[in-house]
Design goal:
The structure is a single chain. The protein is elongated, with a radius of gyration of 20 Å. It has six helices and nine strands, in the order ββββββαααβββααα. The chain has a five-stranded mixed β-barrel. The protein has a three-stranded antiparallel β-sheet with strand order 8-7-9. The mean pLDDT is 91. The chain is of the alpha+beta class. Strand 7 and strand 8 form a beta hairpin.
Length: 242
């Protein structure tokens, strides 16, 4: 429900939090109907706070907040379900998803598809040992939401379909191309990998590595050189990079 300046019972997840003044927290949240935004949790960092334990990443929440400015005030925090029990590489993967949301999604633009895919990805990270396919699926949905849903089975320069036996280039600002222009970031991409990406096939196989490279180049293009802390966590934990 929502009244002037107030929002109630909003499904949301904590993406990041940090101390604010003496006893409060600044909490970046990702919500169903309001997208990504930051709220002040007053007193939540105090010694007697009950909400501090709830305001954790990967915990399904129902939140109330109020205010009209860019920075709202959290007025109620309620657990909607048990936290997703992420451990080890799955935990780093969850931090990676959160960091992508925090860095790339515009503030206060709802995206129910990304929100639903995020919840699905968290569940899959808990249940599956094959994390990569779930990361690639989330990346694809996020890139589409940001306007980077390229037609992976089509060359933008020659206006011809991609064939499995061919090899192609990739410009993160334009898409798949035959000719090597100045903006090409990846070259010699197997056509089979592009066709697998077009049909959303992220299963183990020979195309997994080139698809991962395509996704990383596109995300790095959007980040404009800003590093991701979650990638450093993967490397520090002895796990292959994202």
């Amino acid at each position: 429900m929502s009244r002037a300046g107030q929002t109630g019972e909003q499904p949301a997840y904590v993406i990041h939090r940090r101390p604010y003044r003496e006893t409060s927290l600044l909490v970046d949240i990702f919500s169903l109907d309001h997208g990504r935004l930051t709220v002040i949790a007053r007193g939540a960092n105090g010694p007697r706070s009950k909400s501090k334990a709830l305001l954790q990443p990967f915990t399904p929440l129902l939140l109330d907040w109020q205010g009209r400015s860019e920075l709202r005030t959290l007025t109620r925090t309620e657990s909607a379900a048990s936290p997703f029990p992420l451990r080890g590489p799955a935990l780093y993967s969850g931090f990676y998803l959160n960091e992508l949301i925090q860095r790339l999604l515009p503030q206060e633009e709802p995206n129910p598809e990304v929100f639903g895919t995020y919840i699905q990805a968290l569940g899959n990270l808990v249940a599956s040992d094959d994390l990569e396919q779930h990361l690639r699926q989330f990346e694809r949905v996020l890139l589409m939401a940001l306007g980077y849903g390229f037609q992976w089975d089509w060359c933008v320069d020659t206006q011809e379909p991609v064939v499995a036996e061919g090899h192609y280039n990739f410009d993160p600002a334009a898409g798949v191309c035959r000719n090597r222009g100045s903006q090409v970031r990846l070259s010699d991409i197997p056509g089979g990998a592009l066709l697998a990406l077009a049909r959303e096939d992220f299963s183990p196989g020979p195309w997994r590595k080139p698809i991962k490279r395509i996704m990383r180049v596109t995300i790095d293009h959007l980040l404009q050189g800003r590093p991701l802390r979650s990638r450093e966590l993967f490397l520090a934990g002895g796990t292959p990079g994202l």
